[in-house]
Automatic annotation (TrEMBL), chain A:
<dbReference type="InterPro" id="IPR003594">
    <property type="entry name" value="HATPase_dom"/>
</dbReference>
<keyword id="KW-0723">Serine/threonine-protein kinase</keyword>
<dbReference type="InterPro" id="IPR025847">
    <property type="entry name" value="MEDS_domain"/>
</dbReference>
<dbReference type="InterPro" id="IPR036890">
    <property type="entry name" value="HATPase_C_sf"/>
</dbReference>
<dbReference type="GO" id="GO:0004674">
    <property type="term" value="F:protein serine/threonine kinase activity"/>
</dbReference>
<dbReference type="Pfam" id="PF14417">
    <property type="entry name" value="MEDS"/>
</dbReference>
<feature type="domain" description="Histidine kinase/HSP90-like ATPase">
    <location>
        <begin position="211"/>
        <end position="323"/>
    </location>
</feature>
<dbReference type="Pfam" id="PF13581">
    <property type="entry name" value="HATPase_c_2"/>
</dbReference>
<protein>
    <submittedName>
        <fullName>Anti-sigma regulatory factor (Ser/Thr protein kinase)</fullName>
    </submittedName>
</protein>
From TrEMBL, chain B:
<dbReference type="InterPro" id="IPR036513">
    <property type="entry name" value="STAS_dom_sf"/>
</dbReference>
<dbReference type="InterPro" id="IPR002645">
    <property type="entry name" value="STAS_dom"/>
</dbReference>
<protein>
    <submittedName>
        <fullName>Anti-anti-sigma regulatory factor</fullName>
    </submittedName>
</protein>
<feature type="domain" description="STAS">
    <location>
        <begin position="199"/>
        <end position="286"/>
    </location>
</feature>
<dbReference type="InterPro" id="IPR058548">
    <property type="entry name" value="MlaB-like_STAS"/>
</dbReference>
<dbReference type="InterPro" id="IPR025847">
    <property type="entry name" value="MEDS_domain"/>
</dbReference>
<dbReference type="Pfam" id="PF13466">
    <property type="entry name" value="STAS_2"/>
</dbReference>
<dbReference type="Pfam" id="PF14417">
    <property type="entry name" value="MEDS"/>
</dbReference>
Amino acid sequence: MSAGPFEHAGPFEHAGPFEHAGPFEHIGLLYSTPAEYAAGCGAFLRRALDRGDPAMVAVPGPNGAFLRESLGAEVADRVSFADMTVAGRNPGRIIPRVLLDFARRHRGRRVWIIGEPIWPGRTELEYPACAAHEALINLAFAGRDAAILCPYDVVGLLDEAVSDAHRTHPVMADASRSWASAAYDDPVRTAAGFDRPLPPPPATARSRGFASPGELGALRAFVAARARAEGLGAAVVHRVLLAVNEVATNAFEYTPGGCEVTAWGEPEAFVCQIDDAGHIEEPLAGRLPPDDPLERGQGLVAVNEVTDLVRVHRHPGGTTTRLHFARG
Amino acid sequence: MAHPSTVDRLAAGDHVCWTFDDHERHLEALVRFVRGGLERGEQVLYFTDTFLPEAFLVALGGYGVDAAAAQDGGRLRVTSADDSYLAGGFFEPERALEGWVKAIQDARGEGYAGLRVAVDMGWTARLAPGLDRLVSYEREVNRIFSEGYAMALCCYDRRLFTAAELERLGAAHPGTARGGAGTDEEWTPLLRMRREGGVLTLSGEADATNQDALRVMVEDVVESARDAGGHAVIDVSALTFADLAAVRLLAGAVTAGSARLRGAGPWLTDVLALVGVHDPGEGSAR
């Protein structure tokens, strides 16, 4: 390794605080310039490649292109790249389909992943799901042989996002050093803190209650009619039906009193909300795929897979699950 | 309860859980069922636990069906459950299943266009075989009726079963007519399954309400294809929805090398890919 960006000692060469950490490292990287981005990410990747370990970069497309450029082909060709705005459009999909997927493809080896799930274009509605995802990484990867570096654009992002990063990452870093984050807290409690009330559905929304699983067919017909009235194409309608049916089937199986389904169109998305009287106790529900994809328990993972944003809000009366499907 | 007109929507090969809570409409549905069968040249069997057979025949006459003539010619048979299902004083699923196979053979032998069977399941509530045995019996019935010559209307009195029991029983049928079915819009069985040799053809929708019926048929076609040293074909070209559990079931058969899917549309192909199956079709070699 002698390519330019790696000449200087990177922030992780003298990383006292986490040298004795468990096998899993989860580091928030604060950057304010492209040079800092390249230096921080480059140093991290150098640690991986020096050890001959598999490495992946899952960041927004332009950032990935920039990194590829600044790393040089010799390094970039040894790293897998994914566009986080596609693979991680739905933050609930990142753990199962981006991070764990890469770890599984390199079973038995330490994996190094740069994951940038929060970028300035994330919407206000997406943000709490993204921050909860960052907290839950700590739970999903506890004890696993992996290192995950999450870059935060301190210039482009709101202050809230940067201060939250200190709560969701046990270790923080910038272009020159790294330190144990004093604000880091229990990931389950932190994730629960991002469960925020949802804006009410618009007046144009249509709702219908369903009492028993015998009404699943009627429930799908109701949702399909709303989706088609909103002009959704056949492929999206099928994704909607698969996801809504799965959430509703769970509601019938695990909660008393059936569920209520509310659907509406927004300029950018079709939204479908399922309200039931139950509470999911497993914080990683929908984020840990079973080893065998044919096993049970795949349901909510599949919901995350086919949905562009899932917001779950627990309240004293039960759970609201809001599914967003991008148009087109 | 289900609207009586729902029975008009049954086709040969169907096996339907039909719920009622009112004998007037139950009777009306049965009359329609019997009349429809006689009009089509099918043999009609009704195992009643609700009416005395003689009283039912009189009621048919009241609706303009010449029951006596039909019965004399053997086209219609009305028997009480106590004299048939429970002839030995208790319910033996094996014997009942064999009875259906024989009834189908006989009807074929006598040249009927088809066989339709209505069974009042009320007696099952008085027995102690346990719900498990009844559910397992209802599952097995699919193997016989999906062959496509006969149809079965299983009449369940909602007042005799809990909602949870009816859900389990319903899931052993490809279609269930519940309260309100057929009242506002046309009803058809949610799923239809037809089995011809090593080919199982599915049409409609597969979800939690018919998952056990689908499972037994997929296992059935896979087993017999395996015995014959080949793989089964599951035609899904008319399957319009499958929930994740149903897709997993199909994917399991494909992954095991026991089945290939025919006519999987883009939506099903996408969901199969989610569970790791990328070449489910008939053409691809494994």
